[in-house]
Structures are given as structure tokens and as C-alpha cells.
Amino acid sequence: MGKLTAAITAVGAYVPNFVLTNKMLEGMVDTNDEWIVTRTGIKERRILKPEEGEGTSYLAIKAAKNLLEKRNLDPKEIDLVMIATATPDSLVASTAAFVASEIGATNAFSYDLLAACSSFLFGMSTAASYIQSGRYKKILLIGADKMSSIIDYTDRTTCIIFGDGAGAVLFEPNTENLGLQDEYLRADGSGRKFLGMDAGGSLLPASEETVRNRKHFIYQDGKSVFKFAVSNMADVAVKIMERNNLSHTDISWLVPHQANKRIIDATAKRMGLDGSKVMMNIQRYGNTTAATLPLLLRDYEDQLKKGDNLVFAAFGGGFTWGSIYLKWAYN
């Protein structure tokens, strides 16, 4: 019997029906399609409208049910449900607890994990640790965000970037040396002045003044965030390669956070990877924050082969960032 590792054994996802195109944004803020595509690589993004559903939990439930149906899995077999998100349904009450109940995972404990755009990456590390402890067999990790709920659609620095969506993966024990192999995770709290949301937490509770001054929307210093993201995402991805003696020829796929095509391209270049080895769907969904990585896995699932070497890389507000090396577990 081989060493116990934690492998991804199923993938599910969901994106809302409404498509917000660059052309539509031209009528909302001072921007244009060419500028957006050139600077970000984004052509359109999905937005959850009230007539379809409400809250991040709606997206997460849809993604979870998609996975359960594809895998033909009884939700009562799930031991833990984690929701990686920056936009929980509400403060205090766990979005994950609600999602677990709604999908019928009545034997699972559950909680939310918040690390901005790195939430799903950090959740992978957490899920793998639970599996490797030997105490749990099936962990459902969902990355879900309704970014439209915290976007100011008069602010062209943010409204062109973000979209809504959710993706889910199932982690299970593996003895074939597949699954999560290594991780390199980092954080720097000084970064919150460059990317965050001022009001709504304990530091600046909601008030008439915070609403009037539009403090409940996300803000970012684009140049500073871009600079940090380009260097740090590439650094950790290269670090993972070096620690595991991987050359560019050993890597099957780079699975990068979908924040900006230029950041993705810079990371791939540092790793020596050809564009054909880089997963990308930013053109269709924009930045869905915690949902970007599992959405990539869903979109490329048919191209993945058992034993493929995947390198995940992400960067998020806070700042948080990191890289994970994972061997794919199924065809």
C-alpha cells in the first residue's frame, strides 16, 4: 500500500445565464472593447440576476449538484463541505452550512474559507490535509463568488474585471501517489490597502455614511496589484518547479488564477511554458475570484489524463498567493 495522498476525483461547475459583454459596459462607463481585451483579455463575464437566483449559495449549490450528478454520488457520503469565497451570503451564518444542508450532505461538517482570489488554492491545501489525516474520506471543496454584489458599475477600474460563478471538486484518498504533491503558500497583510473593501466589517461597520460614500464596493490600485501579482505568482510557480525537480517539459498544465491575461502570460513565460499548456477561460468569465481554478478544471476536464502534472498558481487581495503541484487522478 502506497503513501496516502489526496486526489481530485470529480469536478462540477456553474455559471449564471446572463452574459455581460464589453459592448454593454461601453454604455455604462468610459471604456471600450478593444481597451478591455488588450489590458485584461476579458471579452465577457456572467452575472447572477435576481430572476435566476440570489446569493453565492445559489451558485455553490448548482456547482455541487452538477458534481454529484456527474459522479452519481450520495451526498450523505460527504464528510466536509468547504466554501472558498470572498462574498458569503451574509456575515456570521456560514454559507457552507446552508449549502451542505441544501444538497443533502447531512453527515458533513462545513465552514467558509476567505482568502480573496487565493481562497480555493488555500482550500485545496486544507482539504488535502484533512484527507491525509485519515479521518475523512470525501471532502467537497467549492469555490464560489457573486462578485457583482460588491462591484460599483460606475467604477471602470473594477466593473470590467469581475464576474460571477462557481466550481466544485471532490477530494478523496489515493495510494497511487496521485493528487496533491507539494504546496508553497504565502501572505502579506500590508497588501490590503491596495485591494479590498472598506466597509461592512468590524473595522468600519455599515452606516448611512458608509453607504452614501460607496464604501461597500471593492476597490483596487490596479498598478500596484498588477506589479505584485506578476512577480509573486511567477515566483511561487517557479519555486514549486524547483523544489520538485520539474522542468517545463514535465508540466502538463498551468492552472492559473484568471485575473488578467498579461499576468497569466508572464507566469507561463517565467515557467518556460508554451501557451498550449496554459488553461485559460478569462475571455468568457472574467475574474470570478475563488471560482476561477475549479472553473478551469471543468472546462479542461476532457483534456486531462491520469498522471498529468498540474501546477496551480493564484494571487489575491490581502495579499495572499501561492502555488500547488498536483498529479491528476483520472482520465
Plain-language structure description:
The radius of gyration is 19 Å and the shape is globular. The strands form 4 sheets. The protein has a 5-stranded mixed sheet with strand order 1-7-6-4-5, with helices on both faces. The mean pLDDT is 96. With 331 residues, it is of the alpha/beta class. It is built from 11 helices and 13 strands. It is 33% helix and 24% strand. α3 crosses α4 and α8 runs parallel beside α9.
The number of distinct β-strands equals: 13
Whole-angstrom Rg: 19 Å
N-to-C SSE series?
EEHHEHEHEHEHEEEHEHEHHHEE
Going by helix content, strand content and strand pairing, the class is alpha/beta
The end-to-end distance, rounded to whole angstroms, is 22 Å
The number of distinct helices, counting runs of at least 4 residues, comes to 11
For the largest sheet, list the strands in their spatial order: 1-7-6-4-5
Portion of residues in helices? 25-40%
Strand-residue proportion: 15-25%
General shape: globular
Query: What is the average of the pLDDT values?
Result: 96
- Major beta sheet, specifics? 5 strands, mixed
Quaternary structure annotation? single chain
What are the segments in which pLDDT stays under 50 over at least 5 consecutive residues?
Answer: none
State the gist of this model.
This protein has helices at residues 22-26, 33-40, 55-71, 95-103, 119-132, 156-159, 208-212, 222-243, 261-271, 282-285, 292-300, and strands at residues 5-14, 18-21, 44-47, 80-84, 109-113, 139-146, 164-174, 179-187, 195-196, 219-220, 253-256, 309-316, 320-327. It is an alpha/beta fold. It has a 5-stranded mixed β-sheet, with helices on both faces. Strands 8-13-12-11 form a 4-stranded mixed β-sheet, with helices on both faces.
